[in-house]
């Protein structure tokens, strides 16, 4: 019976001890993890981070502890892989020691600075007295000092006169100390004269006040003064109390602001101080905020709720801070495409892709504008094909794949049905070099000229005339623009454009702008023959 | 006297501004690796075809070690280049080894098939190898010389010229002074 009882007890005890061991191990893992910085989330410890990486790191800590490694050895392992960076609190050695010391040095320095500034301020403006004094009274102060009398007031005396007499005694003492400091070389000549002048003026003002009360008090100070009033000492304590209150307020404000700035934000509009202090609204932060990330998320939100004006304002602000921000350019492209400005949208996407050629949103937008709005299936196909190689499997990729297939099918039918239409036209866009844009005064006539690549001189094969063009401009050159009747609109041609000032195609007057297609000659039937007006006729 | 005071004040302000400017130029996510010039951590990797590869067994060869995931766009951007480089270097004493992390096996295999990758690849399911190499953003690539020492580390997509240059350096055991950076994706 006893044996059975012991067995039963041991069955209860073994799992309990195992459980205690496991709890202890978990606690050790948690403690070490709390000291390590998660490489994925930046501001979180490995213990607090929900990321996959942090989970894997916690498992490694547990495994190493089970293998018998000490907590220090585990931490050293992570430092050997990620450097000192991985420790949330850097070790107090070498250069890292500065991080521990500097805040205290800065705090001490700050307190000393405030104390000295307040003291100097109090000294220079005691009780708001005027810094001007009667020269006769200043002379009197000098004489008093030369006599070296005892100006001390009995401590039991009270009243306004006694206060003034104590103040006079204090100032006289101060003047004597200044003299001694100068002789001992503790004070420079300039500082001595400045301080002495200040104290003499203050003392003269005290004498003036005393004189206005009871002239006898000045001659026989010890016997005067009976009325009750506040002491100069109490004024000084007020100054210290004010300084302490200021420091406390400063510390509390700093504490609140710092803790607020480090807290997780609930929304993009959530500012550092929060609405209760600043009263900031999303509209104001769009125009005043400097934080790129916050501006971008404001723009995204505005785009999502189709508030185009605010989205444009936010993205323009982003671009004013960082003119090559790919996401801002891509969103601007999407907004412009939605508004039907396909050429401007394409330029925005191009800017995004010039910064990051693999920027998925810009590739998608570019492809869709080329496909849906410009009918350039080969260009669209190229962009979407690149996007497909970049997108991981998932719903987004499936959607692009679907569009791609739809586009390919359409391309085949179009090629079959519109072969003749596609083959005898040249399409493209014309824009102006930004530097020349500023010189342009508006108006003018744009000529798009196609000359046969094989012949020199003679009339051009085709010319298109556009009055008062707005750039960027998309164009199409076809049979209807031919100058030589009876000839065929086919083969290779050189494309030149001219923004003519007087509108006469036969004259080339100064101020007109010209541009050549960079890949001349071009086959009739080509797409994307994009030309920039980049030269000014002198 | 005022001049001295002014100079000290201006210097102090300049120092603070300089410190602030230096702070702004740094990418706070970026973790400098302490592993360059040190022996590469040893590991055994089970490849997708079931075979095992031990880094120790590759002594005497230059190893191109690439950490990737199928969900990472910069990895996809460099995938074709890596395979093309492998094709041109595979006859020399150079081994390309891909380590798939934080991924699902079917997705990883689909990725390998999609880009026609033929160099050996395996999955680090526990993340132990990734942590051993201090991986934090992918793709991350380590160049290991014939003595088993890391000569160069690159965070982000790699292009043909860098791969070629750094492989030649690894062949001559030349350790790079700094890491390379490209477009990367933080791991999850």
Can you describe what's shown?
The complex is a heterodimer of chains A (538) and B (188). Chain A has helices spanning 2-35, 52-66, 71-82, 97-124, 135-147, 160-183, 189-213, 215-219, 232-262, 275-278, 282-288, 292-304, 308-321, 326-338, 342-355, 360-373, 377-390, 395-417, 419-423, 434-439; strands at 426-432, 445-452, 462-467, 473-477, 492-500, 513-516, 522-523, 531-533, 535-536. With 538 residues, chain A is an alpha+beta fold. In chain A, strands 2, 3, 5, 6, 7 and 9 form a six-stranded antiparallel sheet that branches. Chain A has a three-stranded mixed sheet with strand order 4-1-8. In chain A, helix 12 runs antiparallel to helix 13 (308-321). The N and C termini of chain A lie far apart (118 Å). Chain B is of the alpha/beta class. Helices cover 36% and strands 22% of the residues of chain B. Chain B is built from five helices and ten strands. In chain B, the strands form three sheets. In chain B, strands 5-4-3-7-8-9 form a six-stranded mixed sheet. In chain B, a hairpin with a 5-residue loop joins strand 7 (140-144) and strand 8. The longest helix of chain B is centred in the N-terminal third of the chain and has 24 residues, at 2-25. Chain B is elongated and about 75 Å long. The model of chain B has no long low-confidence stretch (mean pLDDT 91). The chains are: A alpha+beta (538), B alpha/beta (188). The A-B interface holds A 39-40, 42, 51-53, 56-57, 59-60, 78-83, 85-86, 188, 190, 356, 358, 360, 389-393 and B 1, 28-29, 31-35, 70-74, 76-77, 79-80, 102, 107, 110, 126-128, 130-134, 136, 183, 186-188.
């Amino acid at each position: 019976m006893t044996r059975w009882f012991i067995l039963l007890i041991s069955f209860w005890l073994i799992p309990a001890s195992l459980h205690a061991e496991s709890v202890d191990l978990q606690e050790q893992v948690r403690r070490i993890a709390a000291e390590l910085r998660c490489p994925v989330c930046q501001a979180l410890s490995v213990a607090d981070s929900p990321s996959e990486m942090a989970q894997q790191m916690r498992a490694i800590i547990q495994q190493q502890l089970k293998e018998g490694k000490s907590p220090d050895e585990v931490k050293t392992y992570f430092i050997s892989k990620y450097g000192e960076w991985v420790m949330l609190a850097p070790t107090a050695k070498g250069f890292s020691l500065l991080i521990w010391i500097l805040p205290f040095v800065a705090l001490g320095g700050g307190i000393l600075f405030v104390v000295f500034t307040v003291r100097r301020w109090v000294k220079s403006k005691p009780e708001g007295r005027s810094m001007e004094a009667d020269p006769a009274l200043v002379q009197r102060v000098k004489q008093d000092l030369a006599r070296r009398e005892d100006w001390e007031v009995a401590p039991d005396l009270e009243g306004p006169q006694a206060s003034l007499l104590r103040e006079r005694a204090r100032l006289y003492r101060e003047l004597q100390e200044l003299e001694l400091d100068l002789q001992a070389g503790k004070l420079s000549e300039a500082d001595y004269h400045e301080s002495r002048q200040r104290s003499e003026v203050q003392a003269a003002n005290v004498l003036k006040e005393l004189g206005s009360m009871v002239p006898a008090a000045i001659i026989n100070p010890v016997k005067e003064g009976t009325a009750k009033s506040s002491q100069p000492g109490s004024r000084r304590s007020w100054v210290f109390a004010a300084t302490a209150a200021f420091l406390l307020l400063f510390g509390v404000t700093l504490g609140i602001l710092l803790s607020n700035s480090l807290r997780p934000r609930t929304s993009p509009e959530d500012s550092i101080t929060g609405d209760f202090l600043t009263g900031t609204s999303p509209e104001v932060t769009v125009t005043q905020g400097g934080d790129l990330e916050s501006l971008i998320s404001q723009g995204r939100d505005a785009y999502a709720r189709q508030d185009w004006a605010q989205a444009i304002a936010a993205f323009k602000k982003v671009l004013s801070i960082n003119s090559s921000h790919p996401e801002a350019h891509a969103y601007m492209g999407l907004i412009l495409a939605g508004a039907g400005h396909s050429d401007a949208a394409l330029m925005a996407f191009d800017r995004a892709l010039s910064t990051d050629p693999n920027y998925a949103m810009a590739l998608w937008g570019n492809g869709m504008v080329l496909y849906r709005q410009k009918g350039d299936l080969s260009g669209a196909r190229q962009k979407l094909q690149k996007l497909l190689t970049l997108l991981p499997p998932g719903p987004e990729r499936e959607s692009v794949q679907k569009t791609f297939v739809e586009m390919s099918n359409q391309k085949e039918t179009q090629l079959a049905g519109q072969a003749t239409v596609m083959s005898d036209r040249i399409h493209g866009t014309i824009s102006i070099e930004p530097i020349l844009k500023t010189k342009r005064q508006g108006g003018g006539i744009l000529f798009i000229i196609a000359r046969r690549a094989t012949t020199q001189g003679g009339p051009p094969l085709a010319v298109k005339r556009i009055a008062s063009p707005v750039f960027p401009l998309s164009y199409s050159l076809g049979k209807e623009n031919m100058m030589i009747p009876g000839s065929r609109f086919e083969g290779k041609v050189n494309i030149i454009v001219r923004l003519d000032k007087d509108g006469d195609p036969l004259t080339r007057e100064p101020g007109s702008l010209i541009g050549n297609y960079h890949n001349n000659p071009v086959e009739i039937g080509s797409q994307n023959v994009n030309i920039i007006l980049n030269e000014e006729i002198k | 006297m005022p001049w001295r005071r002014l100079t000290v004040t201006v210097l102090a302000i300049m120092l603070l501004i300089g410190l602030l400017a230096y702070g702004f130029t740094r990418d706070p996510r970026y973790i400098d690796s302490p592993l360059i010039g040190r022996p590469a951590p040893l590991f055994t990797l089970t490849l997708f075809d079931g075979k095992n590869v031990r880094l120790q067994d590759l002594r005497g060869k230059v190893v191109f070690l690439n950490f990737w995931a199928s969900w990472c766009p910069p990895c996809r951007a460099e995938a074709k280049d890596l395979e093309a480089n492998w094709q041109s270097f595979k006859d020399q004493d150079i081994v390309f080894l891909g380590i798939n992390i934080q991924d699902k096996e079917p997705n990883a295999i689909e990725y390998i098939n999609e880009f026609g990758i033929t160099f050996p690849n395996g999955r680090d399911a526990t993340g132990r190898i990734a942590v051993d190499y201090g991986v934090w953003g992918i793709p991350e690539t380590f160049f290991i010389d014939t003595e088993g020492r890391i000569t160069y580390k690159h965070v982000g997509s790699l292009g043909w010229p860098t791969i070629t240059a750094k492989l030649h350096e690894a062949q001559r055991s030349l350790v790079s002074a700094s890491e390379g950076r490209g477009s990367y994706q933080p791991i999850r």
